[in-house]
Amino acid sequence: MRHSIISRDFIQTFKKTALCVTLGLTALMTGCASLSSHERVSSSLQSAVGKHCLTECNPRLGIMAAFGQEAELLLAQMQDKSTVLINGKSFTTGTLRGVPVVLVLSGISMSNAVMTSQLLFDHYNVRQLVFSGIAGGTNSQYHVGDVVVAQSWLAPNEVYYANSTAIPAPCGKANDLTCLGLKLMPDVPPYADGIFLRETNVLNAKNSQQEALIDTYSGKAIVHGEMRADYPVDPQMLVVANGLKVTTTLEPICTSPTSCRTPNLVMGRRGISSGAFLANAKYRDYLEKNVQADCVDMETAGVAHVAYANQIPFIAFRSLSDLAGADANPDVGAFFASGVAQRNSAKLTMAFVEAWAPNVK
């Protein structure tokens, strides 16, 4: 009898230890070691079903920001905060406006943002993702301080750089790039002396069996998944964002003590992101005219790509800090220093989190 009791105790301890290993060393440090009831073990096991979470499997809304000031504004409003370092990056869990969230800085640049996005999805059970930050304007109709919510995000650094503006024919006929595993973005003229925007490949669990490109010589698929130029934001999140009340949320933009205006919430067309800092008015105008770009930054399109590959609903709020490529304006530096764009992006993000709360489960 004693032998059988010891065996049962050993089995329960083994199961508990195995669960902690499954959820990751951080989970062991922050709570698995203190699991003392069958209910807690069962709850943790149930939350992990269908999701491999290296750190925590509680459903959360993911929030990303590029700069520390943006993140600090959001962190200041979070409750029950707990921070874990993963590859040197701080991932902070807690509640924001009553919603379970996990917040992380993307880092500046596409490559950092892509790396951080996949880390976030691997380590946490992120149900939806929100990006909060500032951006340069590419549409002169909008003003400094306006917050753009683009319908999709595109990376214009995905290009085919040709010798001329003639349609490329590397695989034998015009516009055929299949032998290279590439595809030009349709209906977009080249920039300058032969820079053609192109689509890029993306795989996810839903499209992995699709044939994205067929080799014209062999007739066989050489790329699976999809070829895409841009990545759409989630339509339901877009509807909620469109219903936010900006007049009571956003801070006025003042150019003098007597001249102030309330920024607008812009339900935009496309946002663009690139590893190159855009400070060229001619290229800005090309992108606005030919790909309907309303704002530009250095991270969001990369995050949108990773979210699409992981099938995570995504949206971004980008507060305009200046007009990209405009002539030097002494007010821009003062505006950056004031932090108004960062505050407005954070305020709108918090308003969205509150409005989105019923959908996080």
UniProtKB/TrEMBL annotation:
SUPFAM superfamilies xref list: Purine and uridine phosphorylases
Q: Which residues form the Nucleoside phosphorylase domain?
A: 60-152, 280-349
Residues of the signal sequence?
A: none
* Record-linked InterPro entries: Nucleoside_phosphorylase_d, Nucleoside_phosphorylase_sf
The protein depicted here goes by the name Nucleoside phosphorylase domain-containing protein
Task: Tell me the organism.
Answer: Aquirhabdus parva
- Gene Ontology terms: biological process: nucleoside metabolic process
> What is a GO molecular function of this protein?
catalytic activity
